[in-house]
Amino acid sequence: MSTADGAGGPAALETVGLDKSFGALQVAHGVDLRLPHGARHALIGPNGAGKTTLINLITGALPPGAGEIRLRGMNITHLPQHARVRLGLARTFQINQLFGALAVIDNVALALAERTGASRHFWRPLGREGALLDEAFVLIETLGLAGQAVQPIRTLPYGHQRVVEIAIALAARPKVLLLDEPAAGVPAADTRAILDAIERLHDDIAVLIVEHDMDLVFRFARRITVMLGGAILTEGTREEIVADPRVRAAYLGNSRHG
Q: Could you tell me the residue range of the domain that residue 224 belongs to?
């Protein structure tokens, strides 16, 4: 598989022949996935298809049994998680990992402090770190939450809490952003906030979203990859995925997404 994107350079993210097994159980088999710069890509499939396992392999939470992971052409297969973050790879998680008692802006500022090294000075009140708070507010404003910046996280609708997690991931200034089920547990009425936030992301960031909410997927993704049994079943545009009888049989069923 070529690593070149349409502009002639390396892809933002690429996996080549990625394998992973837990004993006799193979959870990833020969996974080839490629995200060009600025991609808006979705990864779908039934529970147990291997989607979160693939995210964990890409981010370094799990080591692969075979294959390679490349970030902007660089082989990062054996780098630790923190090194991948520094190189521009960030993610969100299925389960909320926020500090509920702290304000939105403080949650984001803490992530910025970790990136800049200011976390070593936490004996000083965070309020003195004016530059951190300014940058945190810009991130929050970019994602449409400026009016809630000083609210405690626990007072926000759950959909808005998931948007704050995206802001925290953006604090790492990623080139590739992996969103692991951002709408999980979010009431349907609140998913619009998540989609709005994703649509506000800078075009330079390649985004891969793992999601079961097909309305969100089809509104967001330019290309969609379908996983089944730890392997890639197919990849294509929204129209190609909807029309594929294998995808309907394995995942979409009779749902209407035409």
A: 13-252
pLDDT tens digits for range 221-256: 999 999 999 999 999 999 999 999 999 888 876 444
Three-state secondary structure readout of 13-79 = EEEEEEEEEECCEEEEEEEEEEECCCCEEEEECCCCCCHHHHHHHHHCCCCCCEEEEEECCEECCCC
Cβ pair 207, 42 in contact under 8 A: no
**Residue entry with tokens 């060009």:** 36
Q: Cβ neighbours of residue 192 under 8 Å, at least 6 residues apart?
A: 159
Q: What angle do CA 73, 30, 253 make, to 5 degrees?
A: 115
Tokens in use for 185?
């547990």
Is pLDDT above 50 for 120? no
SS3 124: coil
CATH code of 57's domain: 3.40.50.300
172 within a domain of the structure (yes/no): yes
19-78: pLDDT as tens digits: 999 999 999 999 999 999 999 999 999 999 999 999 999 999 999 999 999 999 999 999
* Entry pTM: 0.86
Write the DSSP symbol of residue 92: -
Cα-to-chain-centroid distance, residue 117: 24
Residue carrying structure tokens 């449409």: 144
Residue 57 counted as domain residue:
yes
Strands 223-228 and 40-44 turn out to be parallel
C-alpha to C-alpha distances, 202 to 40, 94, 163, nearest whole angstrom: 11, 23, 15
